[in-house]
Amino acid sequence: MGNGIDEWIASKEEMLKTWRRELHQIAEVGFCEYETTYYIVQQLAELGFTLHTGQAVMEGDARFGVPSADELAAHEQRARDNGVPADFLAGMSGGFTGVVAVLDTGKAGKHTAMRFDIDALPILEEADAVHLPAKEGFRSRNEGMMHACGHDGHATIGLGIAHFIAERKEELKGTYTLIFQPAEEGSRGANAVVKKGWLDGVDQFLSGHLGIRPNPVGTLYSGSTHILATTKIDASFTGKTAHAGMEPHVGKNALLAASSAVLNLHSIAPHGEGATRLNVGRFEAGSGRNIVPGDAFLQFETRGITTEQNHYMKEEAVRRLEGAALMYDVAIDYAIVGEGLAAETDAYFLEKIPKATASSHYITDVHDRMEVNGSEDVTYMMQHVQEQGGLACYMIFGTPLAAGHHHKRFDWDEGALAVAVSALAHILAHE
């Protein structure tokens, strides 16, 4: 069945490019991907998949870091203004975005699931012509939101493999579940998809990422290592404001408590058995020079090479938050707003993928695995499948990068789309 795959992909390359550029223009942050979800459903509607949206996609209580009701309402109104039908929006109300598409070939075979993340980042995209999307007219129309991590490409790859499955279903066997996942950024959405049961009974799970590090188009890494476990924490310190000249002794200084916490968070001893990380990325406090600050807010993250080592970092971080609050006699309130596990690609795929893709003209250089040294909530899906006795992989699709991930000038080579679709198609055809 492998014959003709690359010829089929060649006939779809312009379509892949169009999907990517249209998705790039409607970039939306996690749990607010209303336009994106509608776009994906439109592209899948005629392919024969059973499509699941709204609360069917995620377990609501298992989501991390859901925006406030006011934020969600504002994004829903934006999507309505941009043409998403009111009845379709109603089904996603409250941040229930994303799509799960299922196709059963009717023939006995493996249950294969694939994950494609669809969210963007809260970044104002570069408007200068040095940035290709700006130069060629497909810069994000949603100001302050940008596909700065390649998820527009990931969603495109998902649409491409959906078309492949639909058009080749008479030759394929088993069941295919394609997960277009919301809110990967911040490690917020995958757990809720798992809790809804979409990975139950899956025999093999395929996923991947564009870029990570610059590589030529045509490069494929069969697997990944060092996908770090992570925890994202928001912390609020509440003290008491007072006049800094007349009654400084009456105030309870939340800024000082938070400052002490920041210094002590960054002094946590690294774990002796593997890499650990901590970063405070946001600090807000105070309202004026003559006012004892009564409120302070921190956003930070921990990471670890294993789930256990990240747990160590998280527990130590919480101790320091509570200690700083106690020292300055202020209240502390913190919330886990995102979390990801550690995971590794199964050795099975490290052997299978080079063989399965050997006939692909698009794939020119296959490597064993890449050290990611970042975090991804796809690990919830990988681990769930592996715990059931299934197999999972996380590939890397090579591309040059115009700037680093999460940068306002981030961009990648659209030739990598065909490489990724070719890799997935050849793996499916190799069964």
Written account of the structure:
The model has no long low-confidence stretch (mean pLDDT 96). It is built from 13 helices and 14 strands. The N and C termini lie close together (10 Å). The longest helix is centred in the last third of the chain and has 22 residues, at 307-328. It is α/β, with parallel strands linked by helices. Helices cover 34% and strands 23% of the residues. It has two domains: 5-228 and 342-429, Aminopeptidase; 229-339, 2-Layer Sandwich (Alpha-Beta Plaits). Helix 2 (13-25) packs across helix 7 and helix 9 packs antiparallel against helix 10. It has helices spanning 5-10, 13-25, 34-44, 69-81, 86-92, 132-135, 151-167, 190-195, 254-265, 307-328, 347-356, 378-387, 415-429, and strands at residues 50-52, 99-104, 111-117, 175-181, 204-210, 219-227, 229-238, 242-243, 276-285, 291-292, 295-304, 331-340, 365-374, 391-397. The chain has an eight-stranded mixed sheet, sandwiched between helices. Strands 9-11-7-12 form a four-stranded antiparallel sheet. A two-stranded antiparallel ribbon has the order 8-10.
TL;DR?
It contains 13 helices and 14 strands.
How many distinct beta strands? 14
- Number of structurally distinct domains: 2
Q: Major β-sheet, in short? A: 8 strands, mixed
Subunit arrangement of the protein: single chain
CATH top level of the largest domain is: Alpha Beta
* β-strand amount: 15-25%
Q: In terms of structural class, how would the helical and strand content be classed?
A: alpha/beta
Helix content: 25-40%
Give the SSE order as H and E letters: HHHEHHEEHHEHEEEEHEEEHEHEHEH
| Mean pLDDT over all positions | 96
CATH superfamily of the largest domain: Zn peptidases
- Discrete helix count: 13
In spatial order, strands of the major sheet run: 1-2-4-3-5-14-6-13
CATH topology grouping of the largest domain: Aminopeptidase
Rounded to the nearest angstrom, the radius of gyration is 23 Å
- Described by the principal axes of the CA atoms, the overall outline is globular
Q: What are the segments in which pLDDT stays under 50 over at least 5 consecutive residues?
A: none
Distance between the termini: 10 Å
